[in-house]
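Incident log, structure service

09:12 report received: a user says their structure output differs between two submissions of the same chain.
09:20 pulled the input from the user's history:
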Amino acid sequence: MTFSTLNKIVLASGNPGKIREIQAILADHPIVPQSMLNVVDVEETGTTFVENAILKARNAALHCKLPAIADDSGLVVDALNGAPGVISARYAGAIANDRDNLNKLLRELEGVPAELRTARFICVMVFMEHANDPCPAIAQGVWEGLILDHAVGENGFGYDPVFWVPSHNCTSAELPAVVKNALSHRGQALKALTALIKAKQADVGATLVALGE
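09:34 re-ran on a clean worker, output below:
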């Protein structure tokens, strides 16, 4: 069985923006958001993107009895010593929305000159065949940019309106979805993850053939 023929894979996310992007990138695969399967979000107690992604994938796989994909991602700003980092989605508080988080980021960066506002989006993607998978597939994507001092653009979500993409001379929120998905940290991580999954399954197939099964 290959990745493309798996019956169903649960996506361990309730974030509409993430779900939309991941489903668009993996359009040929049977991805089902955990929100459609009544899975309650697990508490993100990890201190790294990897730890949180594994927590989310394991939780989804456990409750759904299905293979699971999870991502943990965030914005890392050099002038803020890596903040907001793993708490990017709740930077302004547990019940903060995208606008609250973005406004806090801009306040924290007041007075920082443009050349020192370097930042990157980081995404870690995890695939677990089951909740007790001892060797999950793990991939990472990194997208370099700068933080503006004001929001520009209506596309995307989260910090996209202030994330300047030098190669395209615009913010992430001004990019068409297809272009963003090709460039972004999430797109990079998903591309790498699918390659890892296919390689893992090819190894299993080769082993079975060698054993005569």
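09:41 both user submissions now match this output. Likely a transient worker issue. Closing.
09:42 reviewer note: The beta strands are 9-11, 31-33, 68-77, 118-128, 137-147, 163-165, 170-171. The longest helix spans residues 185-210.
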